[in-house]
Structures are given as C-alpha cells and as structure tokens.
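Comment thread on ticket #2218

A.B. wrote:
> Attaching the input chain for the structure job we discussed in standup.
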Amino acid sequence: MKGIQEKKIDLYNPTDDHLSLRENVRAFAKENLDLQAKDHDDEESFNKDLFRRLGAELGIFGVTVPQEDGGMGLDPVASVIIHEEFSAYDPGFTLSYLAHEVLFVNNFYHSGNPSQRAKYMPKVLSGEWIGGMGMTEPGAGTDVLGMETVATRRGDKFVLNGRKQFITNGIVGQVFLVYAKTSKDSRRTTSFIVESSYPGFSFGKKEEKMGMRSSPTTQLIFENLEVPAENLIGSEDGALTHMMRNLEIERVTLAAQSLGIAKRCVDVMCEYSILHREAFDKKLIEFGQIQRLIAESYADYQAARALVYDVASKIHPENRNSLGAASAKLVSTQMAERVSRNAIQVLGGYGYCREYPVERLHRDAILLSIGGGTNEAMQKNIAADLKKLYTSS
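C.D. wrote:
> Ran it. Output below, let me know if you need it in another format.
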C-alpha cells in the first residue's frame, strides 16, 4: 500500500526494533496474508500452515516474553504493530493470532510458574501447539463473574464441568487457559491449563459467523474433565487479578485490529477515487461528497491511532490502565466500522461486491465492538473509572 507512510522513529515506531518489526511484518502480510484472505473467508477455513509459519519463519510468538525465556523481549507497542499490520490484510487470521499470542501466551507467561513455562512455552512459541482462552460462557459474556464452570478438587486433581462459548481457536487448539469457579463466591475465580487431549474435553459445533470467518470459533465442553493440580495457574481463587490485567492488552490489540482495517480501507478508497474511477469526466476524488467520506475517514483513523499507541506505550504487567484500554477500544472499533462503511460507499457497487476487500473488512470490523468486552461495557468501565478518579481524595 502506498499512501500512509511511516516516519523512522516516532510514536508508532519508538525504536529501531519496532520499525524493523513493522517492516518485516508488513512485508510478510502483504506477500502471504493478502493472497489467501478471500479464499479462507469464503470457505470459513483456518490456514493452519500459514499460522505455524508465524513461529517457525517470522518468530512473532512471544512478543512480550523476555528473550531469556524464548520470546522477543518487546512491549505492547510491538504487539499493536503486528495486529495493525496483519489486520490490514486478514483480520480473521489476525484474530486467531491474537487468541494465541495475547489471550494465551502473554497471559500464561505472566501468570504461570517456571515449571509450567518450561513445559508449555516451547510448544506455543514455536507454533507446534496453538493456544486459546476459555472465559466466555453461554450465559456469561461481559459479566465474567457470572460464569458457571466449576472446578472441584479431588486429591491431586481438579474435576472441571461446564461450557465455554465463542472460543477463538477452538477445534484447532491444543491448549487453553480456562477460568472456573472453585467456590460459590462470584469473585473467586481460578485458572487452569487445559489440554484438548484430556479425557472429558470436547468441542461444540463450529459457529457460522458474519465476519472473522477464517478464524474458528466453537464451544469448549468439559464433562468430568480431570486436570492435574499442577496445572492450576497462580493461586486457587486468585485468577481475577491476572484476568483483568490481561484484558487491557487484549483491548489495545483488538483496537489495533481496527486500525489495520481502517488503514486498508482508506488506501482502497484513495486508490480507487484518485487513480482509477471517473464520473462525468472527473476523477471521483473531485466530488465534494466523496472528499468528505475520505477526509473524515483518514482523520478518524489518525486520531484513533494516536490514542491506541499512546495507551499501548503505558501498559505493563505491573501497571493497570483500564481507563486507557477501554477508551482505545471504544474509539477505534467505532471508527473502523465508520471507515469501512465509508469505503463501501465510495466504491459503490464494487464496494458491495467481493472483488474488493472492503465488504469483508466491514464484516470483520463489527466483531471488534463485541469481543474483549462489548462497547457498552467499555462505556460503563470508562464512566466507573472516571467516577473513581473524580471522587478519590
């Protein structure tokens, strides 16, 4: 894509390592993700071979894991860079990357113990195993404390019973970080490492979705599933802290997916209206109605991008920034829906057809205002955080 250029070192590329990462990821995405995106969307199929190349060839699993433990030793800004660049070509594939890299790898590394890391990290960093997370349930989405999956201790094992709903990387995953209740106290939640090969583990039907169709989504079903006690992450009843902490990087990376969608849509609009389409002997860009759609789309994208990268630069496992993360997700996901819809309008009939990617990008954009906490939940969280801020002594 020509139009939107990067400066060498700035807010979006704070170091040479970040800039190099962006250039490598962008080149890989343009060469590999773009060509396969439409087919896998049409077929609702997951490109497992390409996914494993992310570890074996590109080496971008474990972005926020220290180098001494096999990761890249980078920060949430680096993770945002990858999600933005990938989502410009295939947001569905990128969502599966997010579930593996952010929901499992980042969460597990910062919450697990050394022996657990030694057992599982090599497999997920190489891409040999694909990971995911089980939090949402049929009757508990944004209200995570309403979950009903139960873990009962029996000697040196826990027995899990329950269902997880809308789980990204279901069917293709080998290992999941699963949240469950070990008591009736709604705030006492425990997390476990659960392998899909364990007896009593099964997958529900694959969901047929409006968008993000190249990323598989299923139920995880636990029926008297025995998990070794050594697979308990952290302390019993102590999962709420790392659950909420990981939601922050999840939300900024979902916001980054919105940025990638918007960037691609702006580029498609500009190329179409400036270089290709004419009406009444004028380039389409010469018409005021088209200028408004394109100008507002570009400005909205740039404003959201500044917010997302600023928030990402301030996120750290030891620092909470729920206000910033919720704000970044709310603004960016709304922006991506507007911009992708504008792109369809600028392209007219072509935008509505699948010859151009904007109709797929628009369908994909809608999920981002639902997953990782709905936008309505973001509004509630922002208001609650502001209330605390203004009433604290």
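A.B. wrote:
> Thanks. Noting for the ticket: Strands lie at 131-134, 150-154, 157-168, 175-181, 189-195, 201-203, 217-228, 232-233, 278-279, 282-283.
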